[in-house]
Structure formats: structure tokens, C-alpha cells
Specification:
Elements (H helix, E strand, L loop, with lengths): L1 H16 L2 H5 L1 H10 L9 E7 L4 H11 L7 E7 L3 H8 L9 E5 L29 H4 L3 E2 L2 E2 L1 E6 L2 E6 L11 E2 L1 H11 L1 E3 L2 E4 L8 H13 L2 E2 L3 E3 L4 E3 L6 E2 L2 H19 L2 H11 L4 H6 L6 E4 H6 L2 H5 L1 E6 L12 E5 L6 H11 L2 H13 L13 E2 L2 H11 L23 H17 L12 H11 L1
Parallel strand pairs: 1-2, 1-3, 8-16
Antiparallel strand pairs: 3-17, 4-5, 6-17, 6-18, 7-15, 7-16, 9-10, 11-14, 12-13
Helix pairs in contact: 1-3, 3-4, 7-9, 8-9, 8-17, 15-16, 17-18
């Protein structure tokens, strides 16, 4: 019976997700779940968890193995969905078919956040949440005066470079956009009127391009409908469920265009260099001195093969005293229609303890899952104590690179479909606009019309 239940659980993860990413870690998950304590042990009370983070199945296995059946007869069962927030909003399952706990991206969107209970009755702590978690990540988990979602983890972009070039950098901890531009430009070298060595270009990395517009004031966010007093209804912006500051976006694009032209001579020269040399991975170009800087997520930095990572160092990308994480923060919530408080209390307090998360990191390293999963649920733990102490023991490159709590701010709230929208519409638009000859040029449809068309097609 125990073995059958374990097989059912791992199969559920695969079927619900229908994802190659989940399939790739199936073997590791199934082994751990089989030996780590299964959901249907005799007499166990089942805690149903929905998630879009496949590593949560490992955490459930750790939880199950740690339970004392006499004192705490709970077992966690995990169901994987590619986009758990979207699935929850679309189905709104009842108590019988729904989850007790949800762990995933985009849970704080307008379509989802109201589906969760206030977290206070489920998380037992005698200190303010701001002293446990990064305060900047808590604010977007609020609803009507209550904290309903707790942040689990966050990722962020960093500036990586050959550690032998550290002396060229003006700051030992972080870099601003202006420092990145100026230091990159001084590294440029030309032969026969062609760049053979370029410090950096905003056009090399799409995620950096988007983040730069945000740092420069574009204010990307989930749109809020405006009340139409005359019609007695609400009106959504023409672009759908995403909004931004149009004037600041135009100014940001002009700043980035000028960056490329001033630092790297022209858009064409910049493109020619990329076409000639970017057949190799950016981190290898950095360690071969072809480029000075590359931008990557910190999770990707720590998942590099050890010999490649040891050749690199990194700095936090900071602007006006702020470090803005990636938009896909992982959140944790107790589903409003969950029927049993005690089950959610048991798992919540286990999951958000520094001892449990330290054990997650230790077991991950022992099982070599750190080659696939970084940190806690793919990022730094949102619990400051874990990131500032435990991470140092399991990721040696963290020495001198602990993210400063006072500088970590919220990236904002976005709808569940934002990754696809950003990839298919926003990023192509930004790249096209930077390549215009002047800020008043046009290149087909406006961003608003493109987003409207995409929303209708979807």
C-alpha cells in the first residue's frame, strides 16, 4: 500500500504538470518520496499541497520522514501544475478537491490573492514578520490589512565577471547602472575599426533589458481597473492586465539607446560584435577577456559547473539604493476553502523554521540536487536568518555577497500570464525601440496595441 501511494504521488506530479522540467527530476523525486515517508501511511492525515515548484516534492518528503506518527500524524501530498496560480483561479476547487496549501509564483495577483486566508493563525511567531522575512517582500502579500501570503524565496540578476578583473570595479559589493556603463566602456578595445573587446551592452541580455527599464522608472505592474462613475462600472486599460508609466518607459529606452551608442560606438557595431563572438556562453566570454561583464540570475550563477563558477565573481545590480528581485517571487498561502486548520499549522510552522530550511539545504547538497535546484525553491530564502547564515555554509561563493535586507524591495505585482506576455510582446518591443534612430521614431504598433492584440488572441 505504501509503495502504491508513493507511485501515485510521483505520477500525479508528472501528469498535472505535463512538463519536461518536472520529468527531468522525476527519478530524484520518486526515490526520495518512496523512502522519505509517503502521504498515505496508515492513519495519516493528509496535507494537500499544490505547487508549480517541483522541488516542493522533496520538501514534502523531508517533512513526512520527520513526523512522529503518535504526536503529529500528518503527511504531505504534492500535486504539480505548470502555473498553480492560474490553475487555482480557474478552478476554484471546493474543500474536497482543493489544496490546503499553495506554494508558487504569481499568487499575489488580483485574480488569486483573495483565495487565501490570513496567515497569522497558521504561522506561530512571537516576533514581527519584518524581523523574520525580508520586509520588502512582505508588502505584496497583503490584502485588506492582513498578511495572507508569505514569501518563500526570491531570485535576482547579478553582474558576473572574471574574478581576476575585480580591481577594475569601483565597488566591492554592488554596481549601479551608471557604473556598469562607465566601467564597461573603459574596457572596450578596437582593431581595424572593429570591436575585439567590449565591456558590456544592455542588448546582450533580455532580462537585464527589462529590469533596466523598471529601474529607470517604467513601473511595470498588474493593471488596476478604473471606476467609470457615469457607467457605474469599471474599465480596464486598453492593454489588458498590465500597466506602466509610458513617459518613463520612453525616457528609459532613450537612456539605454544612448548607452549603447556612446559606449559601443553604434547599435550596428554592438550587433556586429555580438554576432561575431556570442557563439560561446557569456560567462566563458568573460573569463576569456572578450567581455568584461555578463548578467545572469544568481540562481544560474550557482548552478554553473564548479570550475566555471570558481573563475567568476559577481556584484549586485543596484539602482538608487534598491535591489529589485525577479518578478517570479515564490509565495506560500493557505487556501481559503481548506477545511482543517491543524494540518496547515503543522506544515507551515515546519516549513518556515530556520532549522527546517537549513536541513533542506543540507539534504540538497548531500543528494547533489544543488546541481538542479538553487537554494530554497530556486532562490534565496525569504527568511533573512536562513539566507544570511545557512547559505554561507552550502554555497561558498556567498562569502561577501549576502543580499542586504534593507535594499531588497518588491518587484511589484504581476498577473499569472506575465512571463509569456513579457517574452512574446514586451521584450521584442523594447529591443525594437532601442534600435530606432531616435526617440520619436515608430516601429509599427504601439506597445499598448500589441498587448491588446495578444490579450485578444490568447
Amino acid at each position: 500500500m505504501r509503495g502504491q501511494r508513493c507511485l501515485f504521488l510521483t505520477r500525479t506530479i508528472l501528469v498535472c504538470g505535463n512538463s519536461a522540467r518536472v520529468f527531468g527530476v522525476f527519478c530524484a523525486l520518486s526515490v526520495l518520496l518512496f523512502y522519505g515517508g509517503c502521504a498515505a501511511s496508515s492513519g495519516a492525515k493528509i496535507i494537500t499541497i499544490w505547487t508549480d515548484q517541483s522541488v516542493v516534492a522533496l520538501y514534502a518528503g523531508y517533512f513526512n520522514a520527520a513526523q512522529d506518527a503518535a504526536r503529529n500524524p500528518y503527511k504531505a501530498e504534492v500535486f504539480y501544475f505548470d502555473n498553480v496560480g492560474e490553475r487555482l483561479a480557474e478552478t476554484r476547487p471546493d474543500e474536497k478537491d482543493g489544496p490546503d496549501i499553495v506554494i508558487g509564483n504569481w499568487l499575489n495577483s488580483a485574480e488569486t490573492i483573495s483565495l487565501f486566508r490570513p496567515i497569522k493563525p497558521f504561522y506561530q511567531t512571537n516576533v514581527p514578520l519584518e524581523s523574520v522575512f525580508y520586509a520588502g517582500l512582505l508588502e505584496d502579500g497583503w490584502l485588506k490589512g492582513d498578511q495572507v501570503l508569505l514569501p518563500v524565496s526570491f531570485d535576482a540578476q547579478v553582474i558576473a565577471f572574471d574574478r581576476n578583473n575585480a580591481a577594475l570595479l569601483p565597488n566591492p559589493f554592488s554596481m549601479s547602472l551608471s557604473e556598469l556603463q562607465e566601467t564597461g566602456a573603459t574596457y572596450n578595445r578596437m582593431r581595424n575599426d572593429v570591436w575585439t573587446q567590449v565591456g558590456f551592452s544592455p542588448l546582450w541580455n533580455e532580462e537585464f533589458l527589462f529590469l533596466s527599464t523598471a529601474l529607470l522608472g517604467a513601473d511595470w505592474r498588474e493593471a488596476v481597473p478604473q471606476a467609470d462613475q457615469a457607467a457605474g462600472s469599471v474599465v480596464w486599460p486598453a492593454a489588458g492586465l498590465v500597466a506602466w508609466d509610458e513617459a518613463k518607459l520612453k525616457a528609459a529606452l532613450e537612456t539605454l539607446r544612448e548607452w549603447v551608442v556612446v559606449a559601443n560606438d553604434s547599435i550596428q557595431a554592438d550587433d556586429d560584435f555580438s554576432f561575431k563572438y556570442f557563439f560561446a556562453s557569456p560567462d566563458k566570454l568573460a573569463t576569456s577577456d572578450r567581455i568584461l561583464f555578463t548578467v545572469m540570475r544568481v540562481s544560474d550563477f550557482f548552478k554553473l559547473a564548479e570550475e566555471r563558477r570558481d573563475a567568476l565573481d559577481f556584484r549586485w545590480l543596484e539602482h538608487e539604493g534598491r535591489i529589485v528581485p525577479a518578478e517570479d517571487i515564490v509565495y506560500y498561502g493557505v487556501y481559503r476553502k481548506s477545511g482543517a486548520k491543524a494540518k496547515a499549522v503543522a506544515f507551515t510552522n515546519w516549513f518556515f523554521s530556520e532549522e527546517s530550511q537549513d536541513a533542506m539545504l543540507a539534504k540538497g547538497r548531500a543528494a547533489r540536487t544543488t546541481e538542479t535546484f538553487f537554494g530554497i525553491a530556486g532562490g534565496f530564502s525569504a527568511m533573512r536568518g536562513v539566507t544570511e547564515t545557512a547559505f554561507m555554509r552550502y554555497y561558498t561563493g556567498m562569502l561577501g555577497h549576502v543580499p542586504p535586507g534593507e535594499k531588497i524591495v518588491s518587484p511589484g505585482v504581476f498577473p499569472s500570464f506575465f512571463p509569456e506576455l513579457k517574452e512574446r510582446v514586451i521584450i521584442p518591443y523594447l529591443k525594437e525601440q532601442i534600435r530606432l534612430t531616435n526617440s520619436n521614431g515608430t516601429n509599427g504598433d504601439t506597445l499598448e496595441s500589441r498587448l491588446s492584440n495578444w490579450t485578444r488572441m490568447e
